[in-house]
Specification:
The chain is an alpha/beta fold. It has helices at about 55-70, 90-95, 100-120, 135-145, 160-165, 175-185, 225-235, 250-265, 295-300, 305-315, 325-345, 350-365, 370-385, 395-405; strands at about 20-25, 30, 40-45, 75-85, 125-130, 150-155, 155-160, 200-205, 220, 240-245, 270-275, 280, 285, 325.
Length: about 400
C-alpha cells in the first residue's frame, strides 16, 4: 500500500551525534544497533476503525523525530509501519454502523495519511496492511509450529509463551499484572485447553462474514502479535533496530513480538531496543476510543488550526512523558510559533550554528525535544532584542527547524 507524501529535508551543515534512546527491555539508555549504516525502524500502526487522535499523533511525531535524528547522524533509514486492517474492533464497528469493514478501513487509512502529511511526518518505506501480507504471516506460523512453539485448540493456533522462555524480558511485569493487562488488551486468559493463560493466539478461526484464508492448519485469520513480527522482519530483512509504539503496547504486544520472532529460527532476536511514547489524556483520563474522549487531528485541521502548532504542542513534552491535551497548550504553541516567525522575519539574528549544535545534542540524548525547542526560544528572544550578529541566521534556523524538528515555518 502507498504511504503518504514524502517530505524533502533541507540540507544543514555538519552531522548529528549518535542517538541514545531509552530501551524498555534493558531499562537503560542505549545507542540502538544499526546494520552497516542502516537504522531499521518498525512502528506499530493503526487499527483503522476510527480517526487519528492526539495519542496517535504524539506517538508518530516521536518516531518521526527519531527518524530525523538518525538521518542527520549519517545513518540511512529503513522504516516499516503496519496497518491492522483485520481485527475485532474493525468488525465490531462494521456491525454497529452497517458499513463494510473494508470501506471503514479505507476511509480511516486515507484520513490517517492526510493527518501525517499535514504534520510533516516522514512516511515509511513500506506501509503494509495485514491483508497484503497474509502469505508471509502464514509462513511464520508454519515455522513456529514446526519448531514446537505452537499448538492448536479447537482449530485455533496458540503460541507457547512459557516454552519461549522470554516472558517479562520487555515489560518486567509480575504475573498478576500480566494477566490483568492480557485480559484488557485482547487476550483470552480463561480459554479452556490453553497451556498457559498468557499464551497469545497466532491464528484464529474466523466468524461468519469475517475474512478467512485457507492454510495447512485450518481456515481463519492471523492474530495480532505475529502480524507485526512477520511484516517487520520480512520487509526489513532482519532484526529491528527499534520497535516503537505507545506505552500501552509494552504488554502484551511488544512482549509477545519479542518472544515469537526467535522461535521461527529466522532471526536471533526481534529488536535491539523497545521504545515507547507516553500516553495523552483529556480531562484527567487517558485518550482512548473505548472512552470516547478523543481529540481528532482532522477536526483540528478542519477548524483551521495550523498543523505546525499541533506538532509543536506535542513536542513540547518529552516523548516518553504522559501529558494532557488542553486548549491552553495549543494556544501556547501558537504564541510560540508567532514569536519564532517574528524573529525569522528579521534581517540577521543571534548565532545560528550554536543553536543547531544545541538542538543536535538535545535530540541525541533520548530525543529531548523540550530542550531543543528551548534553544530556539533563546535564539528568538536574543534576535528580537536586537542581536543581529549572524547575517545568515534566519535561513539556518528555518532549515534546522524543518530538517530536525519537522516544523516548516
Amino acid at each position: 500500500m502507498q504511504p503518504w507524501s514524502t517530505v524533502d529535508l533541507p540540507a544543514i551543515p555538519g552531522q548529528g551525534l549518535p542517538v541514545m534512546v531509552y530501551d524498555n527491555a534493558s531499562q537503560r539508555l542505549t545507542v540502538p544497533a544499526v546494520t552497516g549504516d542502516e537504522a531499521r525502524l518498525y512502528v506499530c500502526g493503526i487499527t483503522p476503525y476510527d480517526s487519528t487522535h492526539m495519542g496517535h499523533a504524539s506517538t508518530y511525531v516521536a518516531f518521526d523525530v527519531l527518524s530525523r535524528a538518525w538521518l542527520d547522524s549519517g545513518c540511512s533509514l529503513r522504516y516499516v509501519q503496519n496497518v491492522t486492517d483485520i481485527d475485532d474492533p474493525l468488525f465490531e464497528r462494521a456491525a454497529k454502523t452497517g458499513v463494510p469493514w473494508q470501506d471503514i478501513a479505507t476511509r480511516e487509512m486515507d484520513r490517517f495519511r492526510d493527518d501525517m502529511t499535514a504534520l510533516r511526518v516522514l512516511p515509511p518505506n513500506n506501509y503494509v496492511t495485514v491483508t497484503e501480507h497474509i502469505d508471509g504471516i502464514i509462513s511464520w506460523i508454519e515455522d513456529i509450529l514446526a519448531a514446537g512453539f505452537a499448538y492448536t485448540v479447537d482449530g485455533d493456533v496458540y503460541f507457547d509463551v512459557e516454552k519461549a522462555g522470554t516472558l517479562g524480558d520487555v515489560s518486567h511485569l509480575g504475573g498478576a499484572e500480566m494477566l490483568s493487562l492480557f485480559a484488557q488488551r485482547g487476550g483470552d486468559p480463561d480459554r479452556a485447553g490453553k497451556r498457559s493463560p498468557l499464551d497469545p493466539i497466532l491464528w484464529v478461526r474466523s466468524k461468519p462474514d469475517e475474512p478467512s484464508w485457507t492454510t495447512s492448519f485450518g481456515e481463519g485469520r492471523p492474530g495480532w502479535h505475529i502480524e507485526c513480527v512477520a511484516i517487520a522482519i520480512d520487509h526489513l530483512g532482519g532484526s529491528v533496530s527499534v520497535q516503537g509504539g505507545g506505552r500501552d503496547l509494552v504488554f502484551p504486544h511488544h512482549e509477545m513480538c519479542n518472544a515469537q520472532a526467535p522461535t521461527s529460527g529466522r532471526v536471533s532476536h526481534f529488536a535491539d531496543a523497545y521504545l515507547h511514547a507516553g500516553m495523552v489524556s483529556l480531562n484527567g483520563e487517558k485518550m482512548s476510543k473505548s472512552l470516547g474522549n478523543l481529540v481528532f487531528i482532522s477536526d483540528l485541521r478542519h477548524q483551521g488550526i495550523d498543523p505546525m502548532a499541533i506538532r509543536l504542542a506535542i513536542m513540547s513534552h518529552h516523548y516518553a512523558q504522559d501529558w494532557e491535551w488542553t486548549d491552553q497548550k495549543l494556544s501556547a504553541a501558537m504564541e510560540r510559533l508567532d514569536q519564532w516567525r517574528q524573529a525569522l522575519a528579521m534581517q540577521g539574528g543571534a548565532d545560528a550554528m550554536q543553536v543547531l549544535q544545541q538542538v543536535r545534542i538535545s535530540l541525541s540524548q533520548n530525543l529531548d525535544t523540550p530542550h531543543a525547542l528551548a534553544s530556539i526560544d533563546d535564539w528568538a528572544r536574543q534576535t528580537l532584542s536586537g542581536d543581529s550578529s549572524d547575517p545568515t541566521a534566519q535561513g539556518l534556523i528555518a532549515r534546522t527547524l524543518d530538517a530536525l524538528l519537522g516544523l516548516a515555518l
